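#lab-general

N.A. 3:47 PM
ok so I finally got the sequence cleaned up, no stray characters, all 81 residues accounted for. can someone with queue access submit it? mine expired

B.Y. 3:52 PM
send it over

N.A. 3:53 PM
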Amino acid sequence: MTSAAEKILEDALSLPEEERRVVAERLLDTLLRDDPEAVAQAWTDEAIRRAGALERGEVNALDGPTAIAALEAKLRAIHHA
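B.Y. 4:20 PM
back already:
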């Protein structure tokens, strides 16, 4: 990352949460220009891939609260690292 990008990121991270959300959404809008049909097909392909992995026993499913708790713990670890 360039020093200019690092400075922009540093400045953005110092904004209040709502302003960070707006900045993030605006940046993502410049990147997400995919064809809606291609995006829908990609999600379908991913769902099929994940279902197959579950059926083959390659992964285990988690209930929603457990999955969210695990993600929150990972995020806390990142922010406190």
